[in-house]
User: Which sequence fits this backbone?
């Protein structure tokens, strides 16, 4: 049987106390994963709460100030034996719906909570845990965005999948892991969509050279589609690829360009890459000997990468 004293709530002001733990690498290995997890959950919930409050009040909060203030407060709480905290969605929603808009509303809530602990700790002890559970259920029901269930069928399947995935992981694991996985899946979906949005238009100029005008983003997700757009065997001896409406973002794009240049090289044809962005030129320069494409400027001050063979 549990000792009733363990379940008692003792009111009082906190005292300054530095945790007596050995300051070494072993301690850091123990607390570092939990500190990262706690900080991630706290920051995510605070920023989500800030975004929601901004939408309801039609204002714009300061996320950086919120993060710095929360971090400083939690560090200060640590030396007074208090738990770390963050912005609470439920309390914020109740506060906003009750008419609270300024700083005074948050200060009033903090002072009231402190008074309950210091003065009314005996009264808090007699509140049944079941009643507190009921209060939390009411908070969850009132803060859940029920309209999202009605429009989930209208959203793209990828968005609906991410919403369901993040919701399930949040319940099974925690918010930090759910958000991390959601960001990764969203990035992969975005890369897949952008990789398939690659267009090409070709024409022949007055000198008989074939000019390809590209439109899209060249990166690891679209490198294969890029290479499949060209047929060197059917092209003339001089080919120009215009990157005015296209950008190369990573080394996979550079490798795709180099592989295409080698295909034209084997047929004794010349490939010119014109109007490359400054970012692409920097990638080519960084790649150095890893690729055979060279970079220089022509008389029109266009950035041109060309691979002349034969």
Assistant:
């Amino acid at each position: 049987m549990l000792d009733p004293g363990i379940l008692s709530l003792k009111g009082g002001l906190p005292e300054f106390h530095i945790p007596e733990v050995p300051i070494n690498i072993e301690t850091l290995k123990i607390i570092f994963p939990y500190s990262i997890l706690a900080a991630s959950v706290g920051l995510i919930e605070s920023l989500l709460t800030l975004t929601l409050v901004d939408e309801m009040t039609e204002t714009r909060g300061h996320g950086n100030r919120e993060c710095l203030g929360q971090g400083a407060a939690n560090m200060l709480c640590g030396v007074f034996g208090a738990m770390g905290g963050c912005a609470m969605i439920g309390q914020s929603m109740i506060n906003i719906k009750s008419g609270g808009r300024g700083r005074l509303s948050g200060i009033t809530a903090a002072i009231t909570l402190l008074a309950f602990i210091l003065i009314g700790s005996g009264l808090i002890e007699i509140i049944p845990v079941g009643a507190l559970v009921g209060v939390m259920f009411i908070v969850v029901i009132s803060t859940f965005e029920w309209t999202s269930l009605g429009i989930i069928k209208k959203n793209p399947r990828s968005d609906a999948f991410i919403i369901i995935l993040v919701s399930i992981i949040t319940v099974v694991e925690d918010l930090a892991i759910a958000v991390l996985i959601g960001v990764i899946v969203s990035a992969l979906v975005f890369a897949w969509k952008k990789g398939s949005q690659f267009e090409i238009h070709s024409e022949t100029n007055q000198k008989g050279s074939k000019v390809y005008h590209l439109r899209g983003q060249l990166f690891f997700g679209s490198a294969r589609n890029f290479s499949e757009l060209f047929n060197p065997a059917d092209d003339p001896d001089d080919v120009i690829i215009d990157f005015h409406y296209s950008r190369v973002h990573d080394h996979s794009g550079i490798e795709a360009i180099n592989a295409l240049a080698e295909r034209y090289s084997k047929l004794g044809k010349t490939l010119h890459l014109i109007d490359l962005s400054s970012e692409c030129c920097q990638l080519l320069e960084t790649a150095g000997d890893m690729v055979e494409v060279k970079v220089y400027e022509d008389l029109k001050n266009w950035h041109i990468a060309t691979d002349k063979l034969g």
